[in-house]
Amino acid sequence: MFFNPSAETKQDRIPPNQKQTTGFPVLHYGEVPEYTDLATQWNLRIFGLVEEEVTLSYEQVMALPKGNTTNDIHCVTGWSKLDNEWEGVPVEEVTKLVRIKPEAKYVMLHAEHGWTANLPLKDFLTPGNLFANKHNGEELTPEHGWPLRFVVPHLYFWKSAKWVRGIEFMEKDKQGFWEKNGYNMYGDPWKEQRFAWD
Ligand SMILES: Nc1nc2c(c(=O)[nH]1)N[C@H]1C(S)=C(S)[C@@H](COP(=O)(O)O)O[C@H]1N2
Ligand SMILES: [Mo]
Questions:
Q1: Where is this region: Disordered (predicted)?
Q2: What are the two backbone dihedrals, phi and then psi, of residue 61, each rounded to the nearest 5 degrees?
Q3: 182 conformational bin, left if phi > 0, alpha if psi -120 to 50, beta if neither
């Protein structure tokens, strides 16, 4: 009988009730933001429970040390895309700039047009998380989050905010955009935490 060990291994990487895709679907609520001049139309605000709030220009973000991470994307709607390579600014390079206060326990990511996603601070700070400007060696396309998107490999991909513009540190958990619409506060794909009641 035909036996393909690499296919077997990959199957282990697909969480329950997900299907592998080889394309790169585009999924979001609302319009893709358009920028003609990042210097005047874009900044990244880091605020909330921090010793020092900062607002960075795109040039300042891109001047921070860079890193890489790989992930398997698992979208809550059921598709998974394996072996993605991301390049950008590791999360610790950004948080170093503000010094997070000890009372901070949760993070709200703020994206263009008011879209938000929440996650625990511990999950936000997981090594390997980064603010990406490249996917598989290419500059992000606008529909995949250019100029900057968050990537958190271990949660359903809706927590990986595209077009991120703000990082807010909070004491208490708050619902982001999809969480207000019934999605799970945490979103572990291996436990199938899709909806609020899962
Ligand atoms: N700003 C913003 N980021 C977002 C979303 C969104 O609606 N707005 N959707 C999320 C969801 S549900 C998924 S699956 C991924 C999709 O990323 P992609 O379009 O690059 O595949 O983006 C996430 N980040
Ligand atoms: Mo998604």
A1: 1-20
A2: -65, -45
A3: left
Instruction: Tell me if 148 CB under 6 Å of ligand 1.
Output: no
Number of residues in the chain:
198
> Which of 148, 144, 143, 12 minimizes the C-alpha distance to 91?
148
- In whole angstroms, give the CA distance from residue 154 to residue 43: 27
Q: What is the distance of C-alpha 40 from the center of its chain?
A: 24
95 C-alpha to center of ligand 2: Å?
A: 26
Q: From CA 43, how far away is CA 166, in angstroms rounded? A: 8
The confidence score (pLDDT) of residue 2 equals 57
pTM for the predicted model, two decimal places: 0.96
What pLDDT does 56 receive?
Answer: 98
pLDDT average, residue stretch 156-162? 98
Question: What are 21's two structure tokens?
Answer: 């895709």
Residue 127 CA to residue 122 CA, distance in Å, equals 10
Tokens read off for 185: 């506060």
What is the average per-residue pLDDT within 11-24?
A: 96
26 Cα to the center of ligand 2, angstroms: 9
The structural domains of the chain, ordered by start, are 40-191 (3.90.420.10)
Beta carbon of 115 within 6 Å of any ligand 1 atom: yes
Q: Is the pLDDT of residue 11 over 90?
A: no
